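Spend some time on this chain, tokens included, and walk me through the fold:

. . .
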Amino acid sequence: MGHDSDKFLLQMITNYCDDISQVVKEFSLNEDLIREHPGYRAMVAFFVQQIGECASKLSDDFKSKHPEIEWGAIVGFRHHIVHAYGKVIPEILWDTVANDIPELSAFCANQLK
């Protein structure tokens, strides 16, 4: 891996993915809870937002070498959360948590080996 900053950012992304997994486990989080409880939604959205922030700072070189990850979508979702929080669709947030976060976490862990 090229830049030390990329390694640091991947570690941060991994940490936020772990935080999301912990919240899901600890509160038996599911799509209904994300939809019905603004507090859970806000907590998870914060972690997803932080992941997007870290992804936006990864080097272009690193991102271009790993097109299998949708970096633009990750950063775009971060912008959406920050600028239109009240309009975050719970189903999309849950889909991100249930499907994209485990994949991203595994990718980062593999890169950090």
Summary: The chain has a mean pLDDT of 93. Residues 18 and 103 are 12 Å apart (CA to CA).
